[in-house]
Specification:
mainly alpha, binds zinc ion, 254 residues
């Protein structure tokens, strides 16, 4: 880590082990949630309840989910007094969280330390942000994650002002930052047919931004639930929920 030079705005620093460990845990939970959760409410229920209903926050549903899982992993390691503390010890080291060795001696001593350590909580936020960037590129994963959110939105009987009579979320304007994020992630191409949509970058053609899990199927207004689709592909999809394309443009063309 280069301590001397301030990080330019809007850059994050990739720090390896803890990020991939946590990204892998989140990926596995979302891929087979039944092994870990009864439903996403086990996690989202702790997410100040209304989170999946909100419209387009920069701290997305996935950020909340990753953050909760990271705390779960730490709790599990501390509770079992796993002498290895494989995740925790590496996390504290890589994210430069100073800690006394006694902090890892048991549950109470750890949480006493964590309560007092501002750096510990900041580091969890930084870790969450890095894991988000690893997973945000994987649209098939995002589809599974957003299905879990959709189950929760369908089930939750509150927030009526945000919902249609059917109980689905109302359509809202997609903010510019969210459109930019999707446009760059999808490299300006329709995800289904790979047609270039580069001419649209500065235009407000919000209909090209498709909800991966449609609003009609209880999808969320969240940037993790968007993809670029050209108009014909979007019309073909309508309110159905097709599998997302798993084809990605090669970084190094063959
Ligand atoms: Zn297309």
């Amino acid at each position: 880590m280069n301590e001397g030079r301030p990080r330019p705005e809007n850059y994050y620093e990739a720090r390896g082990f803890s990020v991939y460990y946590l990204a892998n845990a989140v990926f596995n939970i979302v891929s087979s949630p039944g092994a870990y959760l009864r439903g996403i409410e086990d996690i989202l229920g702790d997410m100040r309840v209304l989170t999946p209903m909100r419209s387009f926050h920069r701290y997305t549903n996935l950020h909340h989910f990753i953050r909760e899982i990271s705390v779960d992993i730490v709790t599990e390691e501390v509770d079992t007094i796993d002498p290895g503390h494989r995740f925790l010890r590496e996390f504290l080291r890589i994210f430069t969280v100073p800690f006394p060795e006694e902090a890892l001696e048991g549950e109470d001593s750890f949480w006493d330390f964590a309560r007092e350590s501002g750096r510990f909580h900041d580091a969890l936020d930084e870790l969450t942000d890095e894991v988000f960037h690893v997973l945000f590129g994987d649209v098939a994963f995002l589809q599974k994650f957003n299905r879990l959110c959709a189950d929760y939105i369908e089930m939750a009987g509150f927030g009526d002002e945000l919902k249609t009579r059917r109980g689905t979320l109302k359509r809202v304007a997609i903010p510019v930052w969210a459109r930019r994020a999707i446009f760059y992630r999808d490299k300006g191409e329709c995800r289904a047919c790979k047609r270039s949509l580069a001419a649209l970058i500065n235009r407000l053609e919000t209909e090209r931004y498709d909800h991966i899990v449609p609003l009609a199927c209880f999808g969320a207004n969240d940037v993790t639930n968007l993809q670029l689709l050209c108009e014909p592909c979007n019309l073909k999809k309508s309110a159905s929920e097709e599998p997302v394309s798993r084809l990605y443009q090669r970084a190094i063309p063959s």
